[in-house]
Design goal:
- By secondary structure, the chain is mostly beta strands.
- The protein contains one helix and ten strands.
- The strands form two sheets. A six-stranded antiparallel β-sheet has the order 3-2-5-6-7-9, with no helix packed on it. It has a four-stranded mixed β-sheet with strand order 4-1-10-8, with no helix packed on it.
- It is elongated, with a radius of gyration of 25 Å.
- The termini are far apart.
């Protein structure tokens, strides 16, 4: 009976100094997206009246891989889209007007550097990116500005897409 308090104290001390499992400190948002904002020629945010479909394209070996990322969105002023693990990602913006059908398409190619980010064993690896170059066509969009080349799991604008918008006088 005299040994019972001593054994309990030893077991309690061992339990304090040898934890049984690791506490997960994973970030709440482990996904990385490229954030586009749509603005007019004066830099004001606007919602497009056209329906926009965005298809992501990259290569896998010798093949071109395409996937629809945004399908027939209308009235939006921003997009969040994932990038590929390849050295570049290409996006095809297809525009459809409600009254006229297919209007046109633009292609945006984003060259990027992939940066693996390791948190710990429980969380795995996240992929961050650094945009090194942006090229685009000029069918509907006017220009593009790179506002933040570093893409991580913090949600912030990376690219601003400028459209020429005509104002309707009333």
């Amino acid at each position: 009976m005299k040994r019972l308090p001593v054994i309990c104290c030893i077991l309690a001390l061992v339990g304090l100094f040898i934890p049984s499992c690791e506490v997960e400190n994973c970030p709440p948002n482990s996904l990385t997206y490229l954030h586009f904002s749509l603005v007019d020629q004066n830099g004001r945010t606007f919602g497009t009246s056209d329906t926009i479909t965005i298809v992501g394209q990259t290569t896998a070996g010798d093949s071109l891989v395409s996937d629809t990322l945004i399908n027939q969105e209308t009235g939006v002023s921003s997009f969040s889209i994932p990038l590929s693990y390849d050295a570049y990602t290409q996006f095809v913006f297809a525009y459809h007007a409600l009254d006229a059908g297919f209007v046109g398409r633009d292609t945006i190619r984003i060259d990027h550097r992939n940066i693996p980010y390791f948190t710990n064993l429980d969380c795995g690896t996240m992929m961050f990116y650094e945009i090194t170059n942006v090229q685009h066509t000029h069918h509907r969009l006017d220009s593009i500005s790179l506002t933040n080349p570093n893409i991580d799991n913090n949600e912030k604008e990376n690219i601003r897409i400028y459209f020429t918008v005509t104002s309707v006088a009333q």
